[in-house]
Amino acid sequence: MSKVINTAKEFGGMLKETFSQWNEREPFNNSIIIAYYTIFSLPGLLVIIINIAGYFFGAEAVTKQLTGQIGGIVGGNTATDVQEIVANATRSDGTVLSTILSIATLLFGATGVFYQLQQILNKMWEVKPKPKQVFVKLVKDRVFSFGLILVVGFLLLVSLVLSAALTAVSDWVRSHVAEGLVIVFKTLDIVVSVGVITLLFAAIFKFLPDAKIQWRDVWTGAVLTAVLFVIAKFLLGLYFGHSDPGSTYGAAGSIILIMLWVSYAGLILLFGAEFTQVYAKRHGRKIRPTEVAVSTEGQTDNGAIVNKKTEAETKDKGAQTQQQEMGSRKDREGKDTQRDRKERSQRKYKGDLRSPRRNQNS
């Protein structure tokens, strides 16, 4: 029992430290940046993912599944607008040049959000690319971001397969065995969703930043992030289902709703990344830069080196010096007061000696 209590206290302490550090890194600004780049990356992301999963299930079925998921979060109108975005992104006038330009634009746009997310995670984990390898690394990062999109497509494919299998089994159980067992398969469906999302966050934490981190730390942070993500997805679905915050913005309402959802998801992702760092440090496993990066620990945003130990020692010495000066001043004031008292007593004594003579003369 005491072990459970100690573990709970340790976990609570890590959450408290995580929130403190997460709050210091301007998470709302960073989540807005992620949402902004997601809007521009969305057409390319959806087209690539639909084509990957659609190769096995058909593009129409995958599109329907995606829009259904989006509609369950931000409403049917936004899902319809997303469907139109995909249709417009895949539309072409048939010429070879326009097709090549469209593909290049989609690829570049689709990788933009992952590139920006990498920069944010690098800053949170206190690493940055080496100056001489910036251009080469930029190209590699774009290629790697495309690879991460392929991973997302594969995970979506796995999720579709498992969800379809669970739905089929659930329908058979409902009609042939007992309807009460359906809740078991719904629970399994949620577990599968959490598992797939955990794999996605684990891939982001492990491979996207320019940092080396052990898998045990990655899995812990990814599981926490996935659980928070599923809870937020449920709560936001309820909120958007009973209110329509995008209606205030008219034609731009769908874009605003998507940005709101991605912003909230970004906050959770950044919190999970911060927790991963705190968890690793608490267990003595420091996050280190990769071969193409350097550590920025102990540096300010403009690159100036800050020696925290020296700064603390300087403050301590300054405080000690100030205390010594105050003590010396008090000693001097005390000595001056004693001297003044002594002089006053001497003057008073001399005055008392002169008093009888004055009386005699009078």
Automatic annotation (TrEMBL):
<feature type="transmembrane region" description="Helical">
    <location>
        <begin position="34"/>
        <end position="57"/>
    </location>
</feature>
<feature type="transmembrane region" description="Helical">
    <location>
        <begin position="217"/>
        <end position="240"/>
    </location>
</feature>
<dbReference type="GO" id="GO:0005886">
    <property type="term" value="C:plasma membrane"/>
</dbReference>
<keyword id="KW-1003">Cell membrane</keyword>
<dbReference type="InterPro" id="IPR017039">
    <property type="entry name" value="Virul_fac_BrkB"/>
</dbReference>
<feature type="region of interest" description="Disordered">
    <location>
        <begin position="291"/>
        <end position="362"/>
    </location>
</feature>
<feature type="transmembrane region" description="Helical">
    <location>
        <begin position="181"/>
        <end position="205"/>
    </location>
</feature>
<keyword id="KW-1133">Transmembrane helix</keyword>
<protein>
    <submittedName>
        <fullName>YihY/virulence factor BrkB family protein</fullName>
    </submittedName>
</protein>
<feature type="transmembrane region" description="Helical">
    <location>
        <begin position="143"/>
        <end position="169"/>
    </location>
</feature>
<dbReference type="Pfam" id="PF03631">
    <property type="entry name" value="Virul_fac_BrkB"/>
</dbReference>
<feature type="compositionally biased region" description="Basic and acidic residues">
    <location>
        <begin position="308"/>
        <end position="318"/>
    </location>
</feature>
<feature type="compositionally biased region" description="Basic and acidic residues">
    <location>
        <begin position="327"/>
        <end position="343"/>
    </location>
</feature>
<keyword id="KW-0812">Transmembrane</keyword>
<feature type="transmembrane region" description="Helical">
    <location>
        <begin position="96"/>
        <end position="115"/>
    </location>
</feature>
<feature type="transmembrane region" description="Helical">
    <location>
        <begin position="252"/>
        <end position="273"/>
    </location>
</feature>
<keyword id="KW-0472">Membrane</keyword>
